[in-house]
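User: Continuing from earlier, I have the next pair ready.

Assistant: Great, send them over.

User: Here they are, in order.

Assistant: Folding the first of the pair now:
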Amino acid sequence: MSSTPPAADALLHLLWLASPALPVGGFSYSEGLEAAVDAGIVHD
């Protein structure tokens, strides 16, 4: 059983859902493209 109040648990779940770290949308799976751009492997 959780030691946190139910309202705190609900808020935590809502914050997880609203987090920019949640992989949704067109940029969900970049396959490491950001790292390749940062490393200079991919450029214009």
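And the other member of the pair:
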Amino acid sequence: MNYTKAKIFKTEFLNDSIYSLYVEKPVNTIFVPGQFYMIKSDSFPDKFARSYSIASINQENFLRFAIKITGSFTKALSELPKDFELDLFGPMGKFSVKPEANTVLLVAGGIGIAPFLSMLKQNFVDKKKHFTLLYSCKTKDEAAYADELNSLNFQNESASNSTLFFYSRENSRITEETLSSYLDFDEFMTCGPDSLMNYCKAFWNSKEIFKDKIRFESFGLPSKK
């Protein structure tokens, strides 16, 4: 793999464990919302690269990654200074909205919101599709990007963004009854813990939704953090 050097220019904490990492965008970089980069640094004792979804859009002059501290790598990454050079490989991945899909249901859990931030922000600019996001977190504090998501909501005849929040520790969960209210879509996408994705996929399959309409991206904790 040929990695590209890119400098950090800002790290912004949204709560005690979730932060946005802003990195200078390599020249001529073009990506599709939903794609990711592999990130590593030879200065870390752990040389393994990690994958992080892009949470920005092409019109911005930076790459943003939404990251949760889950171990030594993500903690060390959060502590790196401005202008520190990271090694990036990408963009990669096929977790993107099909061009022909006009209505899209997004179901996210926790930091699995990352790729959907890019999709919703791009739609806010382009205003071409109808997105509905069901976002599940344990608590309101874990929904670190709630203000941004609310700011991206809009509605007109040709396009829209709409977000609904669910907090499991406040007895607000995404259930089969919830999902039953959101079946008339061209595409169904889920990203987050395996338990959430498996729940959604099993429900959609039970409703005989065509498999080519269902897309998923795992954000379970990796074996190396």
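Worth noting for the second one:
The domain at 103-218 is CATH 3.40.50.80 (Rossmann fold). The two ends are 21 Å apart (CA to CA).
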